[in-house]
Amino acid sequence: MRTALSLALVALGGLTCPARSVAQPKPPNLPPHLMAPTDPLSPADERKQFTVPPGFDVQLVASEPDIQKPMQLAFDAKGRMWVTSSYHYPFPPANAKATDKLFILSDFDPETGKARKVQTFASDLNIPIGILPLPDCNSCLVSSVGEIRKYTDTDGDGKADKSEVLFSGFGFRDTHGMYNSYTLMPDGWVYACHGFNNDSKVRGKDGHEIQMQSGNTFRFRPDGSRLETWTRGQVNPFGMAVDPWFNLYTADCHSKPITQLVPGAYYESFGKPHDGLGFTPHVTAHPHKSTGLCGLVWYDADHFPKEYKDVMLLGDVVSNCISADKIVWKGSTPVAQERPDFLTSTDRWFRPVDIKLGPDGALYVADFYNKIIGHYEVDLKDPRRDKDRGRIWRIVWKGTDGKAPAPKFAYTDLTTEKPEAIDKLLGHPNLAVRLAATNQLIARDVNAKSVADGSDVYQVHRLWVDAARAWRHGQAAEKAEPRRDSSLLASHALRARRAHDEWGREHPNGEQSRRQQPRLERADAHTLRAAAEWMGWGAKAEHIKPLVEVLAKCPADDTLLRQAARIALRNCLRDNPKAWPDGYDATYADVALAIPQFEAAKYLTVQLCEKKLPAERLPAAAEHITRHGGEAFETVLFAALAEQANADAILAGFRGVQARGAKLNAAATIDLFRNAQKALADTKSVAWGLRVLNALPAVGTGTLKLTPDAVAALTTMLSTKAPDEVRVGAAETLLKYVPADAVEAIRKQLADGTTPEPVRVGCLLALAASNSKDAQSVARDALKDVPYRVAVQIGLSLAGTKEGTGVLFATVKDGKAPQRLLQEKAILERLKSSNLPGWDKQVADLTKNIPPADQRIAAVLKDRATGFARSKGDPKDGAKLFTKHCAACHKIGDAGGKIAPQLDGIGVRGAERLLEDVLDPNRNVDQAFRARSITTTDDRTITALVLRADGEVLVVADPEGKEKRIPLKDIAENRETQLSAMPANFADVIPESEFYNLLAYLLEQKAKEPPKKEK
């Protein structure tokens, strides 16, 4: 029963007072802070802060105290809304009982949208996010930390009295990136998102196990029998939508957030590789306001004006708005065209985390009303994170004259409705209604009388109902063929056939389709997409030729058709290894890179040796050949690459050998060593020779020795006016093969006042990283006179070995190196890994007379803030500095790396926060981006960000964003640090005047506002 307080709060909701319904103004001149600068508002006052297009109204459905903080929403077959909520978030209770709740809202007032009935269905949940009421409406699937549970109301009192765990093993290290957005499709699968920075290992009742790390999508059977990975990659997908073709979409956590899910595709993420076919492109090409995007809906109903049909609406929890993108088609590829924001709010507490299309055609919005939304930028334990407030809003069309009729639910209770009445809903204008009716008929397994000549959309949903009955009763898929020639029907028929054949494989008595592959000569793009996905799933040899033909005719702008066909062709060649052609074909060569098999490696080797492969494909081909072809092709491969002087491909070949956990065979090693030395005599080929010599692994049977001519050539290179990178490369090569000669030669260059600074620094770092005591002593002697930024780099290198650590301590003690080197957190982490007895006491003794590091950083921040306020930073010059110092890891727009967070829109943080981010990156480091201290079996220590495991190799990124590969067998210790992988000495690396230019550029990175709505 509702309390007087709750009734009073509902009354204060101002349901008779519409939200401002005016032409979209320019958004207020307030940055979308991650921490709202204002106090919370009542639901009634918050509602007044919304701006929507003319003719729309925002209505309060429910709020605190009747509900808690809503996470995700879902409607059931009775028209009720199920809402997951969490008080515990962001920390699951460790020892206390979980008390998060699942609510059911019903009896909605058609005029005001208010839910007149709120029930608590379950109250023992632990940060529940994903929710799916099943077609019987008595049970639901819901997430609870680490699990997917099924709750059932067996006595009909509206409360769950039975629960079971369907799946367990989901990761929850990062609670803002857990599994979510359960979507039941007529093929009998529930599709879902797997969020950022969590590792999951989950199996179904059939024993099939999947593993997911960070962003992915997956699907599972609602009875708990099986799970499967659907797509790989993405950053943090949260929110799923479906279109009339039954394509699925997710909202991802970056500024171009809408992703259509191509089965088996890989999408770009932090530090993850693709499968050899490249990353599948996103639907959006234009940047949105922020990267905090979640909740997604495809509008396909008749309540809103017709211009909103095929518009995708997306919640932006950072910018406090709902964005809009109109979808246009390039063949089978959806392209998002930017539209004005659909809803904006001046209340910075408004956090639209989920959006659903209701059975009435209105939009329903879960508002995780909160002062703080930043998960990494603001301490998770900050007491200002709100625990109690949450709202659900309904957005309706009232017409520009305010007289449009209130939206009505298309059904009241499908569970008791006659099948014939449900059948009529299969052609309803509202996609959400059609899907609910389709799933209800499938769940009931009744043979409802169908409409003889319904619309295409009716026939589509009827086709799926008929297909499901065919699955259930072991009948052929031909029972569910389309009744007319239609692009929409043809594509759905193919997808239904795939679902039918999957069922047939799962069930021994199931009958698979006997129909031959579809005729594709005059098929439209959507049908070709569906056919490609079907052929790729069946993966038969006879599908190869038609798929090659599809690729040959695929328009350049239909990128998703091309990707789907490539995935399908990959599957067919993978499952039919004898189907490779004899001669070169660019299509086969392209797909071969995604097939980890000996036959694919053999095909690529032949084409590479015959010089058929384009130069830009050689590195990928070389890595594939050595990884999957084994030792069989190494000698001939590297001989061919040496002839072509392709160092990139040779080094890629080394990576492939490493990844399979092997050593390069002696014959190939010696041949490469000989050819690389010969290259030193020719200025045109010296660069590749140096790179190969420096990367060449040692031969197991002996030591590689440079010829006297090679040593002389390298010494000459070091001392001449060769390019800087050549001179440094020569120093590194000499140190590797003839350290005694190298130290003397390098010492001479350091003493030469004309030696360029990049060469001097490169040589010092090479000396510091060497195992040679003489080399380390030269680096030590230089510490007193080099710029501090260089001293830090030398100190890091010395601290990477036990011997170097001793040298570093002695040098600081003797006053020949700055004491504050021993306050650098990156150096301290390496000293900690050295296991040197008493290292911490030595640090304390040697730094007791200098100011603490935090005090020094605070002074630098203050000075730089004052200096920037007085300066006139040049953003154009700052863009160049970003490219030089930051773009290896960070991305803005389409440029840069994706190792660390994307920086689109970072300018909204303001100068003070950006100064902290750049100059003191270790202040607040999220677990996902903490560097790790890795000690190898030869007692070397590096500090790096782990990107991924690649076969028998751990791939990491050093502070400069360069990938390094460490064989797993060579790792003695791998521990997490509290450090950012970002260098902490930018104040020393970038001159002060240039630093202000970089800051000016970053401050300019504010999201472009969407176009204004035409009046």
UniProtKB/TrEMBL annotation:
InterPro entries: 6-blade_b-propeller_TolB-like, ARM-type_fold, Cyt_c-like_dom, Cyt_c-like_dom_sf, DUF7133, Haem-bd_dom_put, Membrane-bound_put_N, Quinoprot_gluc/sorb_DH_b-prop. It comes from the Bacteria. Residues 499-521 are annotated as: Disordered. Residues 1-23 form the signal peptide. The keyword Heme applies. Residues 873-1006 form the Cytochrome c domain. NCBIfam families: CxxCH_TIGR02603 (TIGR02603), Piru_Ver_Nterm (TIGR02604). This is Dehydrogenase. It comes from Gemmata obscuriglobus. The lineage of its organism: Bacteria, Pseudomonadati, Planctomycetota, Planctomycetia, Gemmatales.
